[in-house]
Amino acid sequence: MSKCLILLIVVIVVVYFGMIINDSKIKESFLSPGKFPVSVTQPLLYKNYVVKKNPGASALSHSQQYVNYPIFPATSCGTNNLRYWRLPTDGQCSRADMCGGLYKKTEPRIPSPPPAPKWGEGLRINYYDTCLRR
For the chain, does the N or the C end have fewer beta carbons within 10 angstroms? Predict the structure, then answer.
């Protein structure tokens, strides 16, 4: 067989299996769509951030929005991996007018940490308690 024929068969098999996988109900996506009736009138993060009165594109330029990106000095104990943000944008929008047009700065709701386990008769190993079997 020639190399072109083998390549054609491989491409057909890949396309065929791609069509079968695409027809299945399981589709992976990193986008989280909103619920239908609410997502028509509300943005995706409306429960976590205060929505502006007239949401839309902002008038910010790249030189104005880059200051939202957290940069800590090397001697700082903080990291750039923030868990709770005041705005959902980090100052790195690919189009500058897409940052800062929907939400106001909002104090994040930080959940309280889980309660520490009660130490019983077992041995404490780090954060956990073991069971003593006799």
Answer: C
